[in-house]
Amino acid sequence: MAQRENQVNRDKLCCSICLDLLKDPVTIPCGHSYCMNCVKSYWDEEDQKETHSCPQCRQTFTPRPALVRNTVIADLVEETKKTGLQAAKADLCHAEHEDVSCDFCTETKLKAVKSCLQCLVSYCEQHLQPHYEVAALKKHKLRKLKAVKSCLQCLVSYCEQHLQPHFESSAFKKHKLVDPFQKLQEIICSRHNEVMKIFCRTDQQCICILCTMDEHKGHDTVPTAAEMSEKQRELKERQQNIERKIKEKEKSLEECESLSTNYFVIPGVQKSHQLYIVCNRFDCKTSQK
Fold this sequence. Notes:
This protein is an alpha+beta fold. The protein has helices spanning 2-12, 36-44, 71-90, 125-128, 130-133, 135-138, 160-163, 165-168, 170-173, 224-260, 271-288; strands at residues 25-27, 33-35, 52-53, 60-61, 114-116, 121-123, 142-144, 149-151, 156-158, 177-178, 198-200, 205-207, 221-223. The strands form five sheets. It has a three-stranded antiparallel β-sheet with strand order 6-5-7. A three-stranded antiparallel β-sheet has the order 9-8-10. Mean pLDDT is 77; it is low at 1-8 and 85-93.
């Protein structure tokens, strides 16, 4: 809940031009707030029109309004940064399968929230703070990121930017790229360090190609994709059988209730007990058929 509220606060304090937290926030006459540099650049492009407008509501201003730092919003932004940092420290968890892990985290990998185009490093909320506080780092260009591929050789998930060497370098082009997958180590054979693409039906476990040549030699093996398809087919059949049985029971109950109306009320016997007697008689008739 606290994380959700913190995210809502962050969204409210984001600049609609750069989509990042406000830096040197300024509020223009219509009431909307932007980063000072963002709205300056936006209005510089409108100078030729001799009229300037709000990027959100399109209200126009003549002459060009003077920009003054909004200290109240600036303080709120700083407080939000601190709250986000505390939340990150309290919630030490691995990045999800579509997230990139922070390059600076050593033990528990946190989700990277931004990538710096100058440092060429991905940062979690905690390790990103110097880019907001150190003057030399404030000029760096930060970009939101999300993993687009995982490499089965490097055992790392990459965003679009850091994935480029796998398309450009001949040494990386042979690497196997798959959709983002968080727990890459779980699909690697601990004995041979190979991807486990085979399922051993004899031992009911995933193995790599080298395993079929020693301890699993002669076992009943199939590709993992084939085993998955078979399991999915069996699961679907079971689900259909369960649904069929439920419908049969519902139909039997409806017939029991309908049949009960044809019997006289048994004095001194509760209605639920009478229905139970009728259902037993109905089951006997059904079994005789």
